[in-house]
Design goal:
The chain is an alpha/beta fold. Helix content is 38%, strand content 17%. Strands 3-2-1-4-5-7-6 form a seven-stranded mixed β-sheet, sandwiched between helices. Helix 4 links the parallel strand 1 and strand 2.
């Protein structure tokens, strides 16, 4: 969902750095061949992910939710020399499109994929990540945050997508709307968590930026 008027949205697009041609191709193919293409980070959010990565120059990045690989490629743009992105997805049905674009990208060799339940995989991994991007199943967002926050080093940054959830978070969640309820709980929890600094950006569907103190 876009919260800005269409003309303002267009203006923002026009005054944001162009995405690389490879990402434009990935966007087109995702919209042509993959279900739920709105799950793509897209031009403006993708450039924001790239900008943050360039500012941090991370050695190690963790992404929860790979989808077609667009956001991983954006995050890879700012990696430090010999840096690595670890990206996790619950299933491998989109492996084919990830394979294609990771192979075409000069950064593709820096991306390590795992398929399975992130809540089961992460405890067995190293957690010296400089940057984390969470964009997966909303029902587990609070679980992902709690699993990671104590294990990450001071100064690590977590980016969490969809925290405005098409505007539904500003009203009481419906009885069966577990996703909205969890997103509301997570935002409230982070707001009161003295271990971190946080800002909720009205970028696309809401992007929370968290820095561990």
């Amino acid at each position: 969902m876009n919260f800005l008027p269409e003309k303002i949205e267009t203006y923002v697009e026009q005054h944001t750095e162009e995405e690389p041609e490879l990402l434009k191709q990935l966007t087109r193919e995702t919209w042509q061949k993959v279900n739920n293409p709105r799950m793509l980070s897209g031009h403006v959010q993708g450039r924001f992910l790239s900008m943050i990565s360039h500012l941090i120059r991370p050695k190690r990045v963790l992404e929860i939710g790979t989808y077609t690989g667009y956001s991983a490629l954006c995050l890879a743009e700012g990696l430090a020399a010999n840096g690595e992105i670890v990206t996790i997805d619950i299933n491998d049905e989109l492996r084919w499109i990830q394979d294609k674009y990771f192979t075409l990208s000069s950064s593709g060799k820096s991306i390590v994929r795992h398929f399975g339940d992130a809540l089961e995989l992460i405890p067995a991994m190293e957690t010296n990540y400089d940057l984390v991007f969470i964009d997966a199943d909303k029902e587990n967002y609070l679980n992902y945050y709690n699993l990671l926050i104590e294990r990450l080093p001071a100064g690590a940054v977590i980016l969490i997508d969809n925290l405005l959830w098409s505007g539904k978070v500003v009203a009481k969640a419906e009885i069966h709307d577990e996703e909205t309820r969890i997103l509301q709980q997570l935002s409230a929890f982070i707001q009161s968590d003295d271990r971190v600094q946080n800002v909720l950006l009205p970028l696309r569907d809401g992007l929370m930026m968290v820095r561990k103190r």
